[in-house]
What does this fold into?
Amino acid sequence: MQAIWHLDPPTGYGPIRMDRFSPYYINPAFFGMSNVRPMTPFTYLYPFDRHAQNTISYYFDFDYDDGRAADAYAQEAIHLAREWREDNHRGMLELRVDAAGSLEINDTRRERLNDPVRASLGGWKAAVFLACDRAQVLADLASLPQVRAENIGGGELRAFLDRCTFHRLMVANEHAWLNVAVHVPARKEPAADLAVPQETVQINLKPELTPLASNP
It folds into this structure.
């Protein structure tokens, strides 16, 4: 949340809900969930045995294997979400690209609102950061032409990504990285992506009419 504080806050929050066909329902043990059962209202709506209720119900209650209470476990996240929604001066993480392809990053989020932090990136670092406008895995970043041209090894690339994550310029999971900066001015998609296809297919929606044979 701290990394995306400059974006619009959530409109609400709540506990995880287990829906039929969701990953939680299909493999609850993987997520540390057990004692899966129909939500309580379904036991009154469908006065059948538990097997039938399990078959009919779409929403389910469950327990956590470690015994956690969802509201207590999520207190820090709930507090941050409330603070985020009430903050009218959230700042911004701006990204500007100059004609040479170098980047200027200006961070005024939260405590930096009155004491901005600025950074400049060029060369392969600028290319990697821009590529992370969309989530990218390490192998794809390592194959960028700028990274290969400068013979940047995996360790150096990973160290750069870790620094970006530490300073909350990116967010990451075990596999991918995504920068959270906002382009100023707003980035435009390439014209080729927005072009209307030249080749069109005409569909005749008018049914063919077969004349009826006249009586002799």
Q: What stands out?
A: The chain has a mean pLDDT of 88. Residues 154-166 form the longest helix (13 residues). Strands lie at 18-19, 33-38, 59-64, 93-97, 103-107, 117-121, 136-137, 170-172, 176-179, 182-183.
